[in-house]
Amino acid sequence: MYFRPLRLFKFIITFISIIILIYELRRLLHSPSLTPSSEDQHTQQIPQQPIPTADIQHVSHTLPPFYISLPHFSDDEAKIWFYNSSYYKFHSKLCADGTCESRGVLFNNTKEHLSVNTFLVPNGLYLNDECGYNYGDAALKRTFHSTDETTVIYDKAIIFTVPDGWSFQHFLDGVGPKLAHSHSYLQQYPDAKVLILKGARFDRSVQEIWSMLGVENEQRIVHYSSNMKVGARLLINPCRTPGIHPRLWQDARLMYWSISGLLKTNSSAPSERKNFIYIQRTSTNAMNSGRLIVNEQAFVEVLRAYCAKHSLNYVQYDHSKDTGHIRSRIELFYNARVIIGVHSGALSNMNFAQSGTTVIEVMPYRSGSSSLPMTCSMFRVEDMKACAGYILYTQAQLLNQSYWMLPFVVNGESNLNVDLNRVQKLLDQI
Ligand SMILES: *[C@@H]1O[C@H](CO)[C@@H](O)[C@H](O)[C@H]1NC(C)=O
Ligand SMILES: *[C@@H]1O[C@H](CO)[C@@H](O)[C@H](O)[C@H]1NC(C)=O
Ligand SMILES: *[C@@H]1O[C@H](CO)[C@@H](O)[C@H](O)[C@H]1NC(C)=O
Ligand SMILES: *[C@@H]1O[C@H](CO)[C@@H](O)[C@H](O)[C@H]1NC(C)=O
Question: For residue 114, what is the DSSP state?
């Protein structure tokens, strides 16, 4: 026998042609209309039949208007500093005449502050819409009619695509209030996917909270990126909801306590809570430079002396050294009587602390400038875009805590030398 390449070649060609023919015949016979537009595994699960139409369900309620009271101030310097801020100049217009100091700022815009909504949309289509109270009507009710309009189709999905929701801080201030009114859907539909924005990281503490809610990263979290067109046979959308309302924030807090097993015991009275927590900012644990206390050792001595006098546990909290499960941290702050720290994201752990907890925020500012670390323009009332500096104050008030603001001017390196007499004077008033 000798080798005949031409014959072998002819044989292979014939074989391939037959395979293609069989494949095409099967395709024509079995798949009359829809062809999946993506190779994604989930797309394969779509039944090959017309998509049923059902009505959109809208679940909503309206919360009462609320007030945010002014911070407590331990001295005139602190008070004048705040009253001079553009934040105060802008918001004090929202106080009824002369009631800013007694009642605080009124929040009474139906759409922005009061109206809580969930939409359940059959065959809903999500296209990178911003998850917030401004969610448009058309976007809320958007549906898909063929798989070509999607890159992926899930059976059920819930949207929590708030900016930076993968980070601890913005999970608490962005996702938390949405979860407060919608977390029951996570249990009701234990197979539903959960959409959050894809980020540079996915903070461990955030993964742990989701996990305690029954949402495991690998199985249920979808890290959404803007080019995805997500269809869901049931799309659950809790986004059109106020970012701030005391009810939502306190309900979210109750949820964190509940999943951590803290509600089995009676909520401890303020006098029984013993933790005095100093949230320490260091050059290694902070994302941005600056805002360090130059005379920290002396500052800590003042705090320790206060704790000794009042039989409190002094706790120095450095989040970068906290390797425990988030559950322990929730318990630590649940038992806080006082939380003190320089303005920084780690202060948002106050979300786990009870009503009535004293929160002291040391506010670093640069005199005569609107740049960081003084995050709000001091002089131009109309310039509100950089007012994130007051987010922790707002949070503490939403959580019904007792909030004190203690501003200190920074040095050339944006660090602060804390006046210990002013600190002592404040501690004597709480
Ligand atoms: C700050 O407040 C003080 C006292 O109310 C006032 O005299 C001063 O002009 C204010 N400064 C600015 C920059 O608004
Ligand atoms: C809130 O606004 C509504 C009108 O939208 C008004 O009727 C109501 O009196 C306001 N509430 C308060 C406390 O001012
Ligand atoms: C909570 O406190 C009440 C009244 O003090 C008491 O009757 C009840 O047994 C307590 N519950 C728990 C779980 O400790
Ligand atoms: C706010 O906290 C105080 C305790 O500091 C409590 O007496 C009051 O009932 C709380 N109010 C709300 C609305 O939770």
Answer: I
- The residue among 417 and 22 whose pLDDT is bigger is 417
Q: Please compute, for residue 345, the number of CA atoms within 13 A of its CA located in the half-sphere on the CB side.
A: 14
Identify the pLDDT of residue 288.
78
Q: Per-residue pLDDT for 102 more than 80?
A: yes
Question: Which stretch of DSSP H or E encloses residue 95?
Answer: none
CA of 357 to the centre of ligand 3 (A): 22
Averaged pLDDT for residues 65-84: 93
Please provide the average confidence, as pLDDT, over all residues in the chain. 86
Tokens standing for residue 67: 């007030």
Q: Is the separation of the CB atoms in 179 and 252 below 8 Å?
A: yes
Mean pLDDT of 370-397: 64
| 264 and 206 part of one domain | no
Rg of the chain taking only CA atoms, in angstroms: 28
Tens-digit pLDDT profile for residues 402-421:
999 999 988 888 899 999 99
Q: Domain check: are 423 and 338 in the same one?
A: yes
Nearest 5°: CA angle at 197, between 210 and 34? 105
- To test the pocket of ligand 4, the residue of 253, 273, 400 to mutate (highest count of ligand atoms within 8 Å of its CB) is 400
Atom of ligand 4 nearest to the CA of 246: 13
- Residue where one domain finishes, among candidates 243, 276, 291: 243
Flag whether 5 is in a domain.
no
- Is 248 inside any structural domain? no
Please determine, for residue 286, whether its predicted confidence score (pLDDT) is greater than 70.
Answer: yes
Best of 266, 267, 268, 272 to mutate for ligand 3, by most ligand atoms within 8 A of CB?
266
Question: Domain residues for 414?
Answer: 66-107+260-427
Number of domains in the chain: 2
d(CA 174, CA 180): 11
pTM given for the model: 0.83
